[in-house]
Design a protein that fits this description.
- A 5-stranded parallel sheet has the order 3-2-1-7-8, sandwiched between helices. Strands 4-5-6 form a 3-stranded antiparallel sheet. Strands 9-10 form a two-stranded parallel ribbon.
- It has 2 domains: 284 residues, HUPs (Rossmann fold, 3-Layer(aba) Sandwich), CATH 3.40.50.620; 179 residues, Isoleucyl-tRNA Synthetase, Domain 1 (Orthogonal Bundle), CATH 1.10.730.10.
- The protein is built from 19 helices and 10 strands.
- The radius of gyration is 27 Å and the shape is globular.
- Helix 1 links the parallel strand 1 and strand 2.
- The protein is of the alpha/beta class.
């Protein structure tokens, strides 16, 4: 154990909509990187910042007031995060209609977008929230509560979690004191309208506002404050942010400001930037309701897993409970493996049908190899003995052993690069190499007792590596399939 404290922040959802496919890549990346770091001896804190306040949250709240007629997730039977997300879509539909009506009446587009009743009412609702108006706070708490219940259900279903959750409603005022300190240090400067800025042009960036003219914080201000809070709470030696590559500039600015302020651990802010995930049908937009919800894609994967497994026809002796567990293990494993097998920096297209192919570069292929080995070992459970064998290795046997010996260095590489695809590619190679060995040489009918012993030990070693590597990706491996 090296004992170093590392924080990995991932997920970071908004409470105006359910988790979607893009969140899944983020979550699986963050969770896996944390587990890989743990395997290298780091003490890891898994964390999340929930964006639970702001204008976008007020949009869902206003739409619920306008259209819900008192409906709740309980009264409609709709999962809480989906329920609230539906009202976010309704808001944008109403807003678009208002803008269109104003434009038709001769108002310029840019002006129309600012003058609708819905947008003005939403802005007022945000001011009322910040002023602590009781009825607004009550509605905010109620709707956020629905979303949190929905998020928790999804997290549990996909097998992830957090050690610490931060909420923007608690952190949005953080950083204001730091702005004052930055003014004293001449890191920031004030413009004529009283807004406060930092000039990063000498660093190849731009000017950045850190406090509005009315004295309110902006998002970067909160991030500066939270970065300091994380360090003060946990004395972390690295702070990893799993955030999409559209925020590359924001993260450069955050790190640079923290460095100029002389904040502890500023040099160790690390942005794990990843590419967007798209479907074969193209990009997704949550405000238009075209995003694929995480729950829906998980259900689809489990259903597809069931279809493929039944087509293979090898599970006739499974109980209903065992089948249900198997379908989920394969479906989730297929999705996680497919999303993690690609280098995080690359944009990727998710193809559900391809991800569950039992013969391709997929999770189910690796899972099936593990289950096959377990079947071999069950049949020979009393045959493995502890003594060393002196039998010379055949080429196929040697290849499995050579690949197996790479595992410790592979875990180190994956941690150094913050890259789970290193593990995914490796366990696939392990499974593929074992299958080539198994096709070339019999275990049950080996040429000698010593050869049988050797091949059983190779099989056991392979199974242990596959299980360990897949666990680092958050993927379970079934004993039978």
């Amino acid at each position: 154990m090296n004992g170093k404290q590392v924080m990995v922040e991932y997920a970071s959802p908004n409470t105006n909509k359910p988790l979607h496919l893009g969140h899944l890549r983020n979550i699986f990346l963050g969770w896996s990187v944390a587990e890989i770091l743990k395997a290298n001896g780091y003490h890891v804190i898994k964390t999340c910042i929930v964006n639970d306040r702001g204008i976008h949250i007020c949009k869902s709240m206003l739409a619920w007031e306008m259209y819900a007629d008192g409906a709740t997730p309980e009264s409609t039977g709709i999962k809480g995060d989906h329920f609230v997300g539906d009202y976010y879509v309704k808001f944008n539909e109403a807003y678009k209609r208002e803008v269109a009506d104003l434009v038709a009446a001769g108002v310029p587009q840019a002006e129309a977008e600012k003058e609708t009743w819905t947008i003005k009412r939403t802005q007022q609702m945000l001011l009322d929230w910040e002023a602590g108006r009781p009825e607004v706070i009550e509605l905010w708490k109620k709707m956020n509560g629905w979303v949190y219940e929905g998020f928790d259900t999804t997290y549990k279903n996909i097998g992830v979690g957090f050690d610490k959750i931060y909420y923007e409603s608690d952190t949005y005022l953080l950083g204001k004191d730091i702005v004052k300190q930055g003014m004293d240090k001449k890191v920031f400067y004030q413009k004529d309208d009283s807004s406060i800025w930092i000039d990063l042009t000498a660093d190849g960036l731009d000017e950045k506002i850190v406090q509005r003219s009315d004295g309110t914080s902006v998002y970067i201000t909160q991030d500066i404050g939270l970065a300091l809070q994380k360090y003060e709470q946990y004395k972390i030696e690295q702070s990893i942010y799993v955030i999409g590559n559209e925020q590359n500039y924001h993260m450069k600015v955050l790190k640079l400001i923290c460095q100029k302020l002389g904040m502890p651990n500023a040099d160790n802010i690390y942005h794990l930037s990843y590419g967007m995930v798209e479907l074969t049908s193209g990009k997704m937009k949550s405000r238009e309701g075209t995003v694929v919800d995480a729950d829906d894609i998980v259900d689809e994967m489990i259903s597809t897993s069931q279809q493929h497994t039944e087509e293979l026809g090898k599970v006739k002796d499974f109980t209903d409970a065992e089948l249900k567990d198997l379908y989920k293990t394969i479906g989730l494993g297929a999705m996680k493996f497919y999303l993690l097998r690609v280098d995080p920096k690359k944009t990727m297209v998710f193809n559900p049908a391809e991800s569950i192919d039992f013969h391709g570069f997929t999770g189910p292929f690796v899972q099936y190899t593990y289950a096959r080995i377990q079947s071999i070992l069950r049949k020979e459970e009393n045959a493995i003995r502890g003594e060393q064998t002196s039998e010379p290795l055949l080429d196929a046997e040697k290849e499995v052993m050579v690949v197996a010996e790479q595992y410790p260095s592979i875990i180190e590489q994956a941690a150094f690069e913050h890259n789970p695809s290193v593990i995914a590619n490796y366990v696939f190679n392990v499974a593929k190499t074992f299958n080539s060995f198994y096709a070339a040489h019999s275990i049950a009918n080996a040429e000698s007792v010593e050869k049988k012993q050797l091949r059983l030990k190779i099989s056991l070693l392979t199974a242990n590596i596959i299980k360990s590597g897949m666990n680092l990706l958050g993927i379970s491996v079934p004993e039978r399939m």
